[in-house]
Amino acid sequence: MAELRLTGRSASSGFFEGPVIILTDTAATRVSSGNPSIEAEILRKSIESCRNSLVSLAESADGEAAEMLGFQVAMLEDDALAEGAFAAISQGIAAHEAWRDALNEEIKSYKDADDEYFRARAADLEDIRDGVMAELTGSSKKVDVPSGSILFSRDLPPSRFLKIDWSKGGALLLTEGSPTSHVAMLARSKNVPMIVNLGQIPAENGAFLLVDGGSGSVIVEATEASKREFREKREFEAKIDEMAEKAVRNPAVTRDGTSISVMINVADPLELDQLDWVKCDGIGLVRTEFLFTNERTFPAETPQYQIYRRMLEWANGRPVTIRTLDAGGDKPIPGLTIDGETNPFLGVRGVRLSLLRQDIFRVQLRALARAAVHGPLKVMVPMVTVPSELEQTKALMNEEIAALLAEGIPAALPQMGIMVEVPAAAIAIDLFDADFFSIGSNDLTQYVTAAGRDIGAVADLADTMNPAVLRLIGSVAAYGRTSGRDVSLCGDAGGDPRIIPALLKHGIRSVSVAPKLLARAKQAISEVDLGQMDEAMP
Ligand code: PEP
Ligand code: MG
Description:
Layout: E1 4-7, E2 9-12, E3 15-22, H1 36-59, H2 63-77, H3 80-90, H4 95-111, H5 116-137, E4 150-153, H6 158-163, E5 171-174, H7 182-189, E6 194-196, E7 208-212, E8 217-220, H8 224-247, E9 252-253, E10 259-266, E11 283-287, H9 301-315, E12 320-323, H10 351-356, H11 358-371, E13 377-381, H12 387-406, E14 415-420, H13 423-427, E15 436-439, H14 441-449, H15 467-483, E16 486-489, H16 500-505, E17 510-513, H17 518-526
Parallel strand pairs: 3-4, 4-5, 5-6, 10-11, 10-17, 11-12, 12-13, 13-14, 14-15, 15-16
Antiparallel strand pairs: 1-8, 2-6, 3-7, 7-8, 9-10
Helix pairs in contact: 1-2, 1-5, 2-5, 3-4, 4-5, 8-17, 9-11, 11-12
């Protein structure tokens, strides 16, 4: 077979080579008892045992894996999920057919959703469908995949991913799938290279593949020359990672000796367990949306306070910037965000929603004020468009601090700053009386370029290197210098070696990046000479 090159979307970076195992969807069957009440009982029992096996899997999982399994358990416990199936059974349909058809209908509505978040959740529902089907048909769900395999599949349920032993490496290739799906998050957290949207599977079981997750490319039956080139690239990247990792405990300094603060973005407090605080200059962004993943309740004040306090303790005196809830846009929260907005990125999102739902906002502000007693806390308000949104937030914060003190509960006023991610705020930055600014380059870029951050077809336009975006970033940095207020940048551009030189050229002296990008970001900073910047760079 001649060499063949495929390109998809990168979902998790890394290199792997080896034979491929192609997973096909299997159709399970069983014979109906013919009695609706027996069929209903069999379905109930099957749902229950699928739930139990997910619960025990969740007990040995952590972080995102545990969260994803918790989501599936919650779905299975929701009576509404099987309502359609039980109705069909009462009409004489066999349990397995009723279940499969009801779930397929639900899965289709998720797949047809406009929102990528919901489309990505379809894989969870498929996982649940297949789990209960396996119980109904008595077929084992054991995954017979040797560790260190490259899997090629249409999509892969997260629970199936978790049952595979990735300790000897491997890679995951999907003809469909999405980089924002749960299985993609799991692949990133376990360092498994993963590519989605590869279209067709043109290889046969056992074919030898080279997978470059970062560039989203696969070579099938590579020539000797391509193998050499692939291995050289892998070696080269490994050396860069190794060098960067050695220097990661040192502060970031440019070649000409300018110090740059490099902090971390936290999306899940568990990430901190594996990280030494010495490697960063503090926490530049905590995305508190992780607190709102339980479908039934919103987080109470004291558990929130304890989580925030633990983060301050972890940071050991370095600043911790916690962002108030940024629900909406691509982060819907059932029961909180507004359904059916025609363009959720331009809708009731971030502080707009928090000010509408003060019942929830005040609880978060109280928890933050209590945590502020324990260290240098900075509270950051997302999606601020006009100064009154910051002023209202400050007023609510002051009211809650007064109430806490009156109740005899220790509380303090943290620094109050804003995300600069809406062009209206970036352009008129001098009108905002904030203690600090943090540039959200992900949203700022999409709003300035009118190119959605989640739309692959316009990904080339949604580029922070666009001179208009960089000039705006430069003007915010300059205002920070003249007004004496801290300016940082916490969007993905801050950890991107391609963009870091341009950010520094435009006056950025502080970035906040995903923990995994700390080493690479510091390395990229050390290669910049601010005295000799490329004139041609935007
Ligand atoms: C941003 O917009 O750059 C940002 C950091 O926030 P998020 O990605 O959470 O919207
Ligand atoms: Mg944002």
